[in-house]
């Protein structure tokens, strides 16, 4: 995949964590569980959560595909 910012070829990999990762309009303090308009980005829980992502080393940008859960 080409970086939409600089057109450099991006590296494919994964966003990973011990718990789920969400996108939210507001910064949350404790529990990261998706609610209301939040988007649950990662799948999996017992063995860690993950989502496919591409990284541009030049721009320091990551594009996450949360549709492949």
Key words describing this protein structure:
0% helix, mainly beta, single chain, three-stranded antiparallel sheet, globular, 69 residues
Explained architecture:
The chain has strands spanning 11-17, 22-23, 39-40, 49-56, 61-65. The protein has 69 residues and is mostly beta strands. The strands form 2 sheets. The protein has a 3-stranded antiparallel β-sheet, with no helix packed on it. A two-stranded antiparallel sheet has the order 2-3. The model has no long low-confidence stretch (mean pLDDT 86).
Query: If helices are DSSP runs of H or I spanning 4 or more residues, what is the number of helices?
Result: 0
**Largest beta sheet: strand ordering:** 1-4-5
Q: Could you give the count of β-strands? A: 5
Could you state the order of secondary-structure elements as H and E? EEEEE
Measured by DSSP, the beta-strand proportion falls in: 25-35%
Distance between the termini: 19 Å
Calculate Rg over CA atoms.
Answer: 13 Å
Helix share bin: under 10%
Q: Summarize the biggest pleated sheet.
A: 3 strands, antiparallel
Weakly predicted, low-confidence segments: none
Dominant shape? globular
Structural domain tally: 1
Q: Look at the helices and sheets and give the structural class.
A: mainly beta
- The residue-averaged pLDDT reads 86
């Amino acid at each position: 995949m080409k970086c939409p910012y600089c057109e450099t070829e991006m590296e494919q990999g994964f966003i990973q964590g011990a718990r789920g990762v969400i996108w939210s309009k507001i910064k949350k303090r404790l529990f990261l569980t998706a609610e209301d308009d939040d988007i649950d980005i990662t799948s999996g829980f017992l063995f860690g959560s993950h989502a496919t992502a591409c990284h541009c080393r030049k721009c320091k940008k990551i594009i996450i595909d949360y549709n492949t859960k």
